[in-house]
Design a protein that fits this description.
Blueprint: H1 12-27, H2 30-51, H3 56-63, H4 71-78, E1 79-84, E2 97-104, E3 107-114, H5 120-125, H6 133-149, E4 153-159, H7 166-170, H8 173-186, E5 191-200, H9 201-205, E6 212-216, E7 220-222, H10 226-234, H11 240-247, H12 251-256, E8 262-264, H13 275-293, H14 298-310, H15 319-324
Parallel strand pairs: 3-4, 4-5, 5-6, 5-7, 6-8
Antiparallel strand pairs: 1-2, 2-3
């Protein structure tokens, strides 16, 4: 059962029922037990009704829930013998992006991801999951290591975006993001990217340019946060609800547009209500994706990535519309 401080605004009907259940359980007795059973059924139905019709803005809130599994939880639940590798060999170690060597269900892999932190102290340590240039250069180093030793790469994305501070810009944030995207696209080995919470802007794309890109059911993926878009378009961040609807940031919309390859179902009520099941489902999806890529050569893997991303915005368009998007050829004099 969630604590009062972790219920989202739209979960209030469920919160009231679960609070009443807790009060009755303290009272005890056979009659009370029957009432508790009825209330639990009602609570489960209420939760199912709410989560079957979440709006994009509500999904944004679920994607940001502090109790959702984090990178460290996925590593603990899915990997053995994890050896963390730090530093970009140029400036420093960035704690927002973590990676290293591990065994995923018996298979040696390189695993990389964003870590947001769970409380105030760890959130500050991990910079709320917003990677600095050094974090993305670390990711490039790990991907090059994976290519050298023929190891698949698993990337777990959960960030509101790359760190926009002055220091990051001074040390080449845009170049670091571009290099990380290039490293993903040119990798000799299979790469699976999963957006497990927020997928924000270039900070997400830099680790989400793999052969397979998947999202959890209530994750979001967008070029800018709903609040940022509302601030730019309406000069009012409070209109984030409107922009979230217009931006098509949900996993269901993005699968429809073929920007992602698959949606990973979450437990009823979101991954934060049953982290163990959520982590297991992510592991199953990754395992299936890796098996589908295992017989592909390095050239085939690179070509598959290239074709996958070239097709975004074009694949499925009518011939005339597709032709209109191509770069026009200069006529000979």
């Amino acid at each position: 059962m969630a604590t009062p401080s972790t219920y989202l605004d739209f979960e209030r009907p469920v919160a009231d029922l679960e609070t009443k259940i807790a009060e009755l359980q303290e009272a005890g007795g056979s009659v009370v037990s029957e009432e508790v059973s009825k209330l639990r059924e009602k609570s489960a139905k209420q939760l199912k009704d709410i989560y079957s019709k979440l709006s994009p803005w509500q999904k944004t809130q679920v994607a940001r829930h502090p109790d959702r599994p984090h990178f460290a939880d996925y590593v603990e639940g899915l990997c053995d013998d994890f050896v963390q590798l730090d530093g970009d060999r140029k400036f420093m170690n960035d704690e927002a992006i973590i990676g290293g060597l591990a065994k995923f269900r018996g298979q040696p892999v390189v695993v990389i991801g964003h870590e947001k932190g769970r409380d105030t102290q760890t959130r500050i340590k991990h910079n709320f999951g917003m990677g600095r240039p050094e974090g993305y250069r670390k990711a490039v180093r790990l991907m090059e290591l994976a290519g050298r030793f023929g190891l698949p790469v698993i990337a777990l994305v959960d960030t509101s975006g790359a760190f926009p501070g002055k220091g990051g810009e001074e040390r080449g944030q845009a170049e670091a993001l571009a290099r990380s995207i290039e490293a993903c696209l040119m990798l000799d080995t299979p790469m699976i990217s999963v957006i497990v919470g927020e997928g924000g802007s270039g900070g997400a794309v830099a680790l989400a340019s793999g052969n397979r890109v998947m999202m959890m059911e209530h994750a979001i993926y967008s070029v800018i946060s709903p609040e940022g878009a509302a601030s730019i378009l309406f000069r009012d961040a409070k209109r984030a609800k409107d922009t979230a609807e217009a931006m098509k940031i949900t996993a269901q919309d993005l699968e429809k547009f073929r920007i992602i390859d698959a949606v990973i179902p979450e437990p009823m009520g979101g991954a934060h209500r049953d982290p163990k099941t959520a982590i297991s489902r992510v592991g199953d999806a990754i395992e299936k994706a890796l098996k589908s890529l295992k017989d592909m050569s390095p050239d085939e893997l690179r070509d598959q990535r290239k074709q996958r991303f070239y097709a975004i915005g074009r694949d499925g368009l009518p011939a005339a519309a597709s032709a209109a998007t191509r770069t026009p050829q200069r006529k000979k004099p």
